[in-house]
Amino acid sequence: MARLNTPAMLKINDLTVGYGAITAVKGLTLEVREGEIVSLIGSNGAGKSTTLRTVSGLLKPKSGNIEFLGEKIDGIAGHEIVAKGICHSPEGRRIFPKMTVDENLDLGAYLRKDAAAVKETRDHVLQLFPRLQERINQKAGTMSGGEQQMLAVGRALMGNPKLLILDEPSMGLAPVLVDLIFETIEEIRKSGVTILLVEQNALAALRIADYAYVLESGHLKLEGDGSKLADDPAIAQAYLGG
Questions:
Q1: Distance CA 145, CA 93 (A)
Q2: CB-based contact 54:15 (threshold 8 Å)
Q3: Confidence class of residue 234 from pLDDT cuts 50, 70 and 90?
Q4: CATH number of the domain enclosing 74
Q5: What residue numbers bound the domain in which 53 lies?
Q6: How many structural domains are present in the chain?
Q7: Does the pTM exceed 0.90?
Q8: 163-167 and 219-225 as β-strands: parallel, antiparallel, unpaired?
Q9: Does 96 reside within a domain?
Q10: Is 187 domain-assigned?
Q11: Are 64 and 19 in contact (CB under 8 A)?
Q12: Collapsing DSSP states into helix, strand and coil, what is residue 211?
């Protein structure tokens, strides 16, 4: 797929982020355009999840800045970023295991006041993930890994995001469920949501991405159309198992 000719929704400018003495992201610049699926790929420790956590307000940058819809958002609180239209489905799912599916979905909409609009979003989520409807009153911790991943994405969608951030949505899932998750990501994009995706399954991520960035040790190494990077022998050797 090729890069969309649409305005930039998210701009990351010369971003540096660290944990104590360790610098995890070093001078990263990238953008996500409206309506795109943008993938970040790279090996473990490349800085992918750190980048997402900084966009979501969970980490503060050492330098550089982040703009969303033309407004500087780096350093503001996570719940304020959610209110602006960025919702994050984190690595490891982080669902609330002792709460039901229903209660987890409700928590995703905690900042929204319009009950009719929340119901409409909920209906959409349950249409995307029929399994959640079947499990609606079940404790989330008793569900399979695939069902919990569906719930994590569904909960993020309940915030009615303009930009949906997905961190490793296929991790630990059986191949048939991986295919389902990626099909659903494309359906979410068709509904008008822009997506920033970090994914260990680099080939699957590149196949659905309009544009992709390759990180290595916190630096931007390569960028380009997702399909072109998927066919790049150097990328195949380094990230796609040859």
A1: 9
A2: yes
A3: confident
A4: 3.40.50.300
A5: 1-85+199-242
A6: 1
A7: yes
A8: unpaired
A9: no
A10: no
A11: no
A12: strand
